[in-house]
Amino acid sequence: MGAIEGLTLGFSHALSLSNLGWALLGCFLGTAIGVLPGIGPALTIALLLPITFSVSATGAFILFCGIFYGAMYGGSTTSILLNTPGESGSIITALEGAKMARNGRAGPALATSAIGSFVAGTVGTIGIAFLGPIVVELALKLGPAEYFMLMVLCFVTVSAVLGGSALRGLTSLGFGLLLGLVGVDLQTGQPRLTFGVPELLDGVNVVLVAVALFAVGETLYLAWRYVEGPVEVRHVGSIMMSKSDWKRSFWPWIRGAGLGFPFGVMPAGGTEMPTMLSYFMERKLVRPEHEKEFGTTGAIEGVAGPEAANNAAAAGVLVPMLTLGLPTSATAAIMLSAFQSYGIQPGPLLFTTQADLVWTLIASLFIANVMLVVLNLPLVGLWARILKIPQPQLYAGILVFATIGTYGISNSVIDLVLLYGIGIIAMFMRRFDFPVAPVVIGMILGPMAEQAMRQALTISQGDWTVFVTRPISLVILLIAIAALAGPRLYAAWLRRMA
Amino acid sequence: MNASTARRGLHSGPDLAAALFVLGVGLLSLWQTVIIPTSPIYAQVGPKVVPYLVSACLVGLGIGLTTVAIRGGWSQDIEELQDAAPLNPRALGLLLAGLLANLVLIEPLGFTIAATAQFVLVAAAFGSRAFLRNLVIAFIVALSAYGLFVKGLGVNIGAGVVETLVFGDPG
Predict the structure, then answer these.
(1) Which of A47, A52, A84, A167 to mutate to test the interface with B (most CBs of B within 10 A)?
(2) Does the beta-carbon distance from B58 to A458 stay under 8 Å?
(3) Which end of chain B is more exposed for a tag (fewer CB within 10 A), N or C?
(4) Which residue from B25, B47, B102 is facing A192, i.e. has the nearest CB?
(5) SS3 (DSSP) at B27
(6) Cα–Cα distance for residue pair A378/A366, rounded to 1 Å
(7) Is A169's pLDDT higher than 50?
(8) Which chain B residue has the Cα nearest residue A430?
(9) What pLDDT score does B42 carry?
(10) Distance from CA of A311 to the nearest CA of B (A)
């Protein structure tokens, strides 16, 4: 099915009252949790996973994607008004945005980031609709060996290429893979890594790990570094952008969106890199008369560009997730496990076997974008008020809901012990700068990778050379090795030159 | 030679502990892999292969991290960690006490009391001194969450003394 045909079908379903309702709920919830410090989309979707037992797949995924997009919009509000970026993608927004807010220009900063998010979200969603079917065509030619190599590539890029250190990123990944291995082996029925605890035979629950990493670990780390003092929320003021604000924002939006989307699509789903690149690009390209605003009073270009890049990259992440079943961010990984709980195998066949679901989802993304820009421009005062929830009660509340989300699964105190144990490990991971996202990705993608590997080896009758004799598999392997070794060789080469 | 290179050569205690922890996890999983019983069912690739691979990687990474830690560690090179506030033992202690209270109380006394105790302790960890007000907020939040989840969504989150009084016998 082509993109136009698909979108027609998608919109005809997405415009139904119940699907619009799910989208609105998702956008509202997503913006709220994006605004609130300490809660992100990965945690929220994880806590909502139990609804997959009672809500239709289409409704649930519209809700989840609304949350995913909404959190991007909400995150920028917090960076601008509070100068505390809630997620890595909005760190750059805080640079110029918070400075604009300090100079009484919070309104235009919020407006340019909301409209920029809309532009980029729309560009990104168009990208999904047109690129998706093409990737699917290619992906249908891949066998288990190629799939396994793609997953290896994904592991390498999310853990070793992004972030501070390959050593620490790969350690996080290893920890996630280990968690994914716990439980009964599906092919042979042998219990693995259960330490003789019967509760672990079913494996470690994804929700539990996500809550441990993103709620318990995060709160513990905040307490570790807690310094008493009042929190200052800047006033929003008028959100009207002047004519010059529009003119100065327009090209940064477009450039940011163009930069962000490819980064999201490649299995290197980080938002740090495109936002940073967009920031430096705008700083270079800014008209000389505005140059001194960068780093002083806050330049609107430095908010518009990175914010657009952030949203376009987030939209791009959905391409490998929907077409290949490869999650490249923690949130995408949790959504993947939602697909699994519906018994749907994400991957190239999704576009044919679940065409209704996929296209309704994509159409809903367009609708969500419109809803979000409406929710975020006139209602920005409401979100600013959410920021005034006192932090002690907010964090206390988050932990109460963390307990509900975990204890509700099986009513077992063992699960709570695991939750707090992994939470304490996550706190130390923050302290020692180990990234958290590879843990989630490793845990969810690990078992799928193992399955693909064993399938490939069963087909080849145990011959391990299958991974290097099949040309596509070899090429992907070489890319993975280059991604792992390339930056190090380059650095070594620079050192020799110096 | 600048300050950061001058400090090299001295090993970093905390980083070394983190590295040895990783090594320990690797060895632990290696031991768990060795004791996986050999499968009676024929499989081209048995259940042990991937656990061996992952364990071996973790042991290797642990050794790598230990080497880095002995050479001075990595924490000193990360600006964000250098600028961060020092350990707040009071806040962290109260928070951990909150988690422990929840863990110990939830089975004997039920969700509402456990969650209330946790809420008050966590709020205190983050500097709130309005204990009585927090107690009231916590009790209301916990009890209505219980009502919502158990009666509304049919998810059991642990009945106890208070829940039986308010909502009647669970069942």
Answers:
(1) A167
(2) no
(3) C
(4) B47
(5) helix
(6) 19
(7) yes
(8) B81
(9) 61
(10) 25
Residue in B18, B84, B122 nearest the CB of A225: B84
Q: Whole-structure pTM over 0.90, yes or no?
A: no
Of A15, A126, A28, A121, the C-alpha closest to A374 is A28
For residue A194, the chain B residues in CB contact (below 8 A) are 32
Chain A and chain B share a number of CB contacts under 8 A equal to 200
Question: Mean pLDDT lowest for which of A87-101, A483-497, B157-171?
Answer: B157-171
Report yes or no: B72 and A216 within 8 Å, Cβ to Cβ. Answer: no
What's the start-to-end Cα distance of chain A, in Å?
Answer: 54
Please, which residues have CB within 8 angstroms of residue A191's CB and are 6 or more apart in sequence? Answer: A183, A184, A185, A201, B36
Percentage of chain A lying above the pLDDT 90 cut: 50
B10 pLDDT band, cuts 50/70/90, is low
**Which residues in chain A have Cβ-Cβ distances shorter than 8 Å to B37?**
190
Stretch A193-197: mean pLDDT: 88
A224, A406, A488, best to mutate vs chain B, most B CBs in 10 Å = A224
Report the pLDDT value the prediction gives residue A236, as an integer from 0 to 100. 80
Average pLDDT, integer, range A82-110? 84
- CA A160 – CA A183 distance, rounded (Å): 27
What pLDDT is stored for residue B171 in this prediction? 47
A59/A63 Cα distance (integer angstroms): 6
Q: No. of H helices and E strands in chain B?
A: 8, 0
Mutation target for A interface from B55, B155, B156, B163: give the one with most A CBs within 10 A: B155
Contact: A393, B92; criterion CB under 8 Å: no
| Nearest C-alpha in B relative to A404 | B157
* Segment holding A365, helix H or strand E: helix A355-376
Per-residue tokens: A12: 């005809």
Read off the pLDDT band of B4 (50, 70, 90). very low
- Range A207-223 average pLDDT: 92
* Amino acid code (one letter) for B82: Q
Q: What is the pLDDT of residues A343-371, one digit of tens each?
A: 888 888 888 888 999 999 999 999 999 99
Would you call A400 and B128 a contact, using CB atoms and an 8 Å cutoff?
A: no
Q: How confident is the model at residue A266 (pLDDT cuts 50, 70, 90)?
A: confident
- Mark yes or no for CB contact A224/B61 under 8 Å: no
Tens digit of pLDDT for each residue in A390-408?
Answer: 889 999 999 998 888 888 8
Asked if A219 and B122 come within 8 Å (Cβ–Cβ), the reply is yes
Kindly tell me the sign of the dihedral angle through the C-alpha atoms of A121, A126, A132, A134: negative
Higher local confidence (pLDDT), A158 or A362: A362
DSSP A435: -
Other CB atoms within 10 Å distance of the CB of residue A254: 17
Round to whole Å and give the CA distance between B101 and A452: 44
Contact B61, A171 (CB under 8 A): yes
Chain A contact probe: residue of B34, B74, B80, B126 with most A CBs at under 10 A: B126
CA–CA separation, A428 vs A8, rounded Å? 49
**Contacts with A190 from chain B: Cβ below 8 Å:** 36-37, 39, 47
* Contact assignment for B137 to A393 by CB distance below 8 Å: yes
